[in-house]
Amino acid sequence: MSEAAPITRSADVLIIGGGMAACWAAIMAAQAGVEVLLVDKGFVGTSGVTATGGPNHWWVAPEPGRRETAIEERYARSFGLAERDWMARIIDETWRALPQLAGYYPFAGDGKGGTFYSGVRGPEYMRALRRFAQDAGVTILDHHPSLELLLHADGAVAGAAGYARLKQQTWTVRAGAVVIATGGCAFRSGLIGSHGNSGDGLLMAAEAGAVLSGMEFSVSYSLSPAWNSTRTLPYFAARFFDTEGRELDVPPPMSGEAAHLRALARALETGPVLADLSDAPDALKRGLRRIQPASLAPFERKRIDLFRDRFPVRIFGEGTVRGTGGLQIVGDGCETSVANLYAAGDSATRELVAGATSGGGAQNAAWALTSGRIAGAAAAAHARGAGRRRDAPVKAAGTAGLRPASTARLPDAREGLPVIQAATIGYDAALWRSGDKLVRHRDAVEAIWRTIADHGHAEGGGAVALREHAAMAACARWILAAALTRDESRGMHMRIDRPGTDPAQQSRLLVAGLDRVWTRPERGAAQEIAA
Amino acid sequence: MIAQIFAERCTGCQACVAACPTHVFDAGTDGVPLIARLDQCQTCFMCELYCPADALYVAPEQEGEPGLSAAEALAMGQVGRLRHDYGWDRDAPPEAPHLQDFWQLGPLLREGAEIAARRYAKRKAAFEDG
Ligand SMILES: Cc1cc2nc3c(=O)[nH]c(=O)nc-3n(C[C@H](O)[C@H](O)[C@H](O)COP(=O)(O)OP(=O)(O)OC[C@H]3O[C@@H](n4cnc5c(N)ncnc54)[C@H](O)[C@@H]3O)c2cc1C
Ligand code: SF4
Ligand code: SF4
């Protein structure tokens, strides 16, 4: 309950989120000399998928021809939806920025006599970014989830409001510019580090009028022991067996058309799947503890020898975390389609650098770093010019879960989560999409969204949870609408009823709307989809 | 899921209350935090990393009953083990930094994928021959 008086503050730039994108944005804005406030749902250092991961950044030296070659290789995998200029930009910015962390992150050798910069371990990376941001003058407010944006009369974003959960107080921040860096939406799949990644920023931005892009590209999974989602390094050489000891026909991890995932998903639908890591590289068996200790703990704490014993596995849905959909970027400064609002990291579309395939494994981290830095700098410059407009009247933009359209009688929406999960990360729904399945799931999710929008209302910590469920429902609606409109297969969007790629649909696909969801190609006429 | 806070080790510093990203703990009246929202625990082990007294144990099971009890984990040396493996319980000597092997992640991942690809090709070939 909100007992104490509300917290009210102002800043030039407000950053919403506390992962790598948020921190890099905050650092750049503060270095530009403006006042920066960062609000995170969790704790900057442990929250988000960066902290539990260990992102390897796209890392290409500025040597003649090398970057051009790298860009062409990756462009070829983007199914025509990436932009070479953006790819060049993230390679260059990442190369310049990461070494700046040297005073904060314990960089070590690269095995060849140089320094290894490109891959960083999550907890140490986020601890370093926190200290770097604080030294740059950023004010960090941990455990301050944002619930909604505030709007000026002209529709420009004026700040945000939320709930300080340790203090049990509501908060309001007025700002000249706001950066959304709330990460992707993994639909509570259990994916490592993703509990708070429920798409809140996408909902808040959409309520302010922002448009999304690439939401159909949200079909990504990571393999882990069935009882604990870990990083995937240990499992690349795995063989797979059923409980009778029969080896399963599972194509290797990097096969096309998600063959690896599809084979695992089909097998998992019929019964437990056991992994056997006896073939793993010897250096991995010897060195895993020193490289990625958190991948070992789930085994040791069950008395399982992961390289000798067979153990059950599962694939955990990643939604838009390693999918590529998110807020549409309309300018070189990571502007969204709403004035004063910027987006960075997994909450922004990564199609600009990865197109229709996952940018996991290098591009997503380089994007999160670069888009953060770009958004932070652009937001600072904009806020300096436009000012905070502190005294102008504003209105709160939040809808579902905060201001029900009808009677308030639903304080908790977790009952609907299994339906949302089945529609978005359910193996059959996601890996074998088809028009009729998409329609069925769309209608089921629509009913849940309606109930939350019409009747959802909670206070304090309950409001945070309810908004998370509203956001997941909203993300599911956008994903299903986009997947239905994209009447073809392209990259990770695989329609069994439309197996081929259609050259006429080589365009990014926009989706937005709350009451009514609409879609349209980025270049082309609007196409209304009946909600 | 977070299984236990060992009261006899806990100094009441409240670091875990702040560091848990999903707001699982409440500050306790006797200094030892309370596990107040177990349903929000994402089994990320971060509280163990941030506890300077090695007073917490996170069971690896995201759902259901843990295989080992917290007491068994303590007896096995698992309590505090993860923080030690990360090197967060001590400074590293300059000639052997904590992350000196981290560069191997990419090469080992690729090697694993290549092993799987070679083995699969062989298996397919054998299948076609036979
Ligand atoms: C297992 C795994 C391995 C990966 N490996 C790689 C790799 O090797 N290379 C690569 O390029 N990419 C990799 N990725 C992807 C990469 O980690 C992400 O692209 C990147 O970390 C995203 O950073 P972010 O800051 O956008 O999001 P996150 O780190 O997820 O941060 C989101 C933040 O937003 C906060 N937040 C959410 N909602 C709210 C709210 N309502 N109010 C306030 N704050 C909120 C959260 O608390 C969190 O701090 C991997 C991803 C996973 C899951
Ligand atoms: S394991 Fe993670 S989510 Fe669970 S209590 Fe510890 S820090 Fe919090
Ligand atoms: S961090 Fe450790 S010592 Fe400090 S309060 Fe939490 S459990 Fe106790």
TrEMBL record, chain A:
Name of the protein: Succinate dehydrogenase/fumarate reductase flavoprotein subunit
Entry cofactors: FAD
Entry keywords, A to Z: FAD, Flavoprotein, Oxidoreductase
Record's catalysed reaction(s): L-aspartate + O2 = iminosuccinate + H2O2
Family matches, as InterPro entries: FAD-dep_OxRdtase_2_FAD-bd (IPR003953), FAD/NAD-bd_sf (IPR036188), Fum_R/Succ_DH_flav-like_C_sf (IPR037099), Fum_Rdtase/Succ_DH_flav-like_C (IPR015939), NadB (IPR005288)
Domain FAD-dependent oxidoreductase 2 FAD-binding: 12-361
Organism per entry: Sphingobium scionense
Residue ranges, annotated region (Disordered): 385-408
Gene3D superfamilies, A to Z: FAD/NAD(P)-binding domain, Fumarate reductase/succinate dehydrogenase flavoprotein-like, C-terminal domain
Domain Fumarate reductase/succinate dehydrogenase flavoprotein-like C-terminal stretches: 462-502
GO BP field: NAD+ biosynthetic process
A matching Pfam family: FAD_binding_2
MF-aspect GO terms: L-aspartate oxidase activity
Organism lineage: Bacteria, Pseudomonadati, Pseudomonadota, Alphaproteobacteria, Sphingomonadales
UniProtKB/TrEMBL annotation, chain B:
InterPro entries: 4Fe4S_Fe-S-bd, 4Fe4S_Fe_S_CS, Fe-S_Ferredoxin
Gene3D superfamilies noted in UniProt: 3.30.70.20
Pfam families, per the entry: Fer4_9
GO molecular function: 4 iron, 4 sulfur cluster binding; metal ion binding
Domain 4Fe-4S ferredoxin-type residue range list: 1-30, 31-61
Keyword annotations: 4Fe-4S, Iron, Iron-sulfur, Metal-binding
UniProt xrefs under PANTHER family: ADENYLYLSULFATE REDUCTASE, BETA SUBUNIT (PTHR43687), BLR5484 PROTEIN (PTHR43687:SF4)
Protein name according to UniProt: NAD-dependent dihydropyrimidine dehydrogenase PreA subunit
Top-level taxonomy: Bacteria, Pseudomonadati, Pseudomonadota, Alphaproteobacteria, Sphingomonadales
